[in-house]
Write the structure tokens for this entry.
Amino acid sequence: MEEGVIKFALQFTESGPVPGESLAILNAWRRILWQLALVGQDPERYGGYGFGNVSQRIAPLDAQAGKRQFLISGTQTGGLETLEAAHFTVIRSYNPHTNRVVAEGPVKPSSESLTHGMIYDLDAGIHAILHVHSPHIWQQASALNIPVTDAAVTYGTPEMAQEAARLFQETHVLHKGIFSMGGHEDGIVAFGTTASEAGGILLNALATSYSL
Ligand SMILES: [Zn+2]
């Protein structure tokens, strides 16, 4: 499995950064995650591809499924400690069934944009998503009581969308705010109404994994 390779059909329009959107808190959390090597780029990890990405919904927050627009970090920005507005792109629409993503911004979006979109579709109260790579949490997901997607399903595919939907139906994942991607080495997704809520959930899980 190759991290960082876009697997969906991308309709991309290059434009300037989105004006008027505050990314300060999301970026602050992204920086902490980078410092903890939960997001990054390392020649010794995942074939040297950048890993981890963050997103945040933008108005209108009452948008219907498939059109819950969000800002997401660009593909291959993992190596940077701090991101700026120019490193984020807007996902205008997405469709896990047809495997299509429509994006607009200064950089091409993360290869996991479709996964983010489908999580936003599963609950309108989710406004921020942090996707990281944590061997500690991933290897101990069961002990941490964190729901896990089917190991046969890889990242960025329509099947991952179905798997996430299954977790939301069959487990307490909405309450936990975190799940593990069984078929995506070290892949963890945390979410919340804010980036701070998702970040807190993630760091609590990391602390607990260290304690086991
Ligand atoms: Zn990943």
Observations:
- The domain at 9-211 is CATH 3.40.225.10 (L-fuculose-1-phosphate Aldolase).
